[in-house]
Amino acid sequence: xxxxxxxxxxxxxxxxxxxxxxxxxxxxxxxxxxxxxxxxxxxxxxxxxxxxxxxxxxxxxxxxxxxxxxxxxxxxxxxxxxxxxxxxxxxxxxxxxxxxxxxxxxxxxxxxxxxxxxxxxxxxxxxxxxxxxxxxxxxxxxxxxxxxxxxxxxxxxxxxxxxxxxxxxxxxxxxxxxxxxxxxxxxxxxxxxxxxxxxxxxxxxxxxxxxxxxxxxxxxxxxxxxxxxxxxxxxxxxxxxxxxxxxxxxxxxxxxxxxxxxxxxxxxxxxxxxxxxxxxxxxxxxxxxxxxxxxxxxxxxxxxxxxxxxxxxxxxxxxxxxxxxxx
Length: 327
Known about the structure:
The chain is an alpha+beta fold. The chain is globular. It contains 9 helices and 13 strands. The chain has 2 domains: 2-51, no CATH class; 63-326, DD-peptidase/beta-lactamase superfamily (Beta-lactamase). The two termini are 48 Å apart. Helix 1 packs parallel to helix 2 (35-51), helix 3 packs parallel to helix 5 and helix 4 runs antiparallel to helix 5 (160-169). The strands form 5 sheets. A 5-stranded antiparallel sheet has the order 3-2-12-11-10, with helices on both faces.
C-alpha cells in the first residue's frame, strides 16, 4: 500500500507541471504486476523529467582580450583581483599567504556592530576606556555624537577609539564582540582569518587576500558600509562649536580610478608595522561590472594605492565583460 502511495506521489509531482507537460508519462496500474514495480517505473519517469528541467545559466567570467599580458608588477606581498559577478580570479599573487591586516579589521567590526540593530541616532560620548592609541583620534572625550557619526569616523578616518565606542554601544564585552567577529568570519568561509581585537592594532588580526575578498563582498553589500567607505570626508563639530574634517584614509577616492567611467564602490585601508600598507576595494568599470582588489603588505603608503590603481586599470584594459543578458 505504501509503495503505491509513493508511486502516486511521484506521478502527481510530474503531472503538477514541475516539468514540461510533454515529459509526463502515465502508468496503467493494471499492466504492472506489483506495487514495487510501479514505484520503480515512477522513479525512472521522475528522474527523466527532472533531467529535462531548464538549467540555471552559468555566469560567464570576463574574457581576456590580451592573452600576452601577464599582469602588473606590484609592491604588495600578497594581491588578488576577483570579478564580482563570476567570482573569477583575474590576478593573483600569494593570495593564500596569511598576514596581519591592520584596520581592514574595521569592516568586520562594523558588520558585527550592525548585527545588533543599533539606533544610529543614539548619542554616545567617547570615554577614557574607549581610547586607543595609533592613528588619529577624531572624537573629543565626553563630547556626545550620534552613533552614526561614530561609525563613519571609524571607517572614514580609521579611528581606533571610534571602533571601541561601537563595541561598547553594542552591549557586548570586548571579548564576546571579538568572539562574534571570529564566528562570522567562519560563517563567511574565511577559514584562514583570526581576529584578536576590534581595531586592527593587534598583529594577531590575520587573514589572506582570498579571505578579505569574502569580507569585502559581505561588507559592501551593506549600504551603510558601502556609502560610508566611499565618502571622501566627514564634517564634524567640536565641543566649542568648531567644525573640522575627517579625511578618508583611502586616497584612491581622489584618483583617476574614481572618475568616470570608473568608480570606487567602497573599501578600507589598513596599516600597522607588522602588516605593511594594505587596501581592499571594489572598483566599477564603464560597463557597470566591478572587481574586488586586495593588496596586503605593500611597502609604502603610496605603493598600496598605486598597486590597487594599477591592478584595477589593468583588469579593465585586458579583460572584456560579457553583456549581462549573455552571462
